[in-house]
């Protein structure tokens, strides 16, 4: 009986710090607006205990496989390994940074690699259509045109939440028409090709969003370092052209010890977000703390004050 009380007491002592850690994770999850929860599950704690002193070695071995897949271009195979390394060493910021970058950049590009080939196949089929067939399959021609426009806009206009909703709504409209056509003509090659084509922008959007969420998840484990705030801010700025979110996370990054280039990117983000006064103030601040930036800062300030624009 005495032994049972001792075991219960030890269990309570172990539960208290675990509870505080969960509260901290929940707080940062809410702070970063995560869509999916970051939960410390009993199995996760058990896995860490089982691995014990071999956890670092296991992560190193997994990381070697990640490197191999990276250099061989097999990006999809990297994802479960990145998740595993992140689980084993959640404070290792590099795995979060690399994972987010591969999803939002490399796999994003890879998702559209067959677009040209599929479009050419469709064009060959469409050339042989009679006038009546052109009318009959107007939904296919319209879907192809809309798909091309969306793919162009993804990289020219960006991927803000509002724009993405518009892209997906347009895709859904055309997918509905193509589905109805497929039900009437099973096995139609043009229908199959256009369905594959419509999946490309969806996949691109999916992987961009996955990269963003992976970086946000990493932040919840590393809230006191600038690195992942910067990586996320840069992804929003450069890949998403989502300047409000870029500013939000770059401002979080500069609250922690950081290199000067973070302030540089924040100045550009302020400008792109229409916050010209803040951009000028940021360049003035950067010029004071980093003499190497004096030349570019003076030029940017001059252009912002005289033209209202400095970044190409």
In a few lines, what is going on in this structure?
By secondary structure, this protein is mainly alpha-helical.
What does this 3D model show about the protein?
The chain has 312 residues and is mainly α. It has 3 domains: 2-44, no CATH class; 115-207, no CATH class; 223-312, Tetratricopeptide repeat domain (Serine Threonine Protein Phosphatase 5, Tetratricopeptide repeat). It is 80% helix and 0% strand. The chain has helices at 2-31, 42-51, 55-72, 75-88, 93-110, 115-127, 131-136, 138-156, 161-184, 189-221, 227-239, 243-253, 260-272, 276-289, 294-306. The longest helix is centred in the middle third of the chain and has 33 residues, at 189-221. The radius of gyration is 25 Å and the shape is flat.
Secondary structure layout plus pairing:
Layout: H1 2-31, H2 42-51, H3 55-72, H4 75-88, H5 93-110, H6 115-127, H7 131-136, H8 138-156, H9 161-184, H10 189-221, H11 227-239, H12 243-253, H13 260-272, H14 276-289, H15 294-306
Helix pairs in contact: 3-4, 4-5, 5-10, 5-11, 6-10, 8-9, 8-10, 9-10, 10-11, 11-12, 12-13, 13-14, 14-15
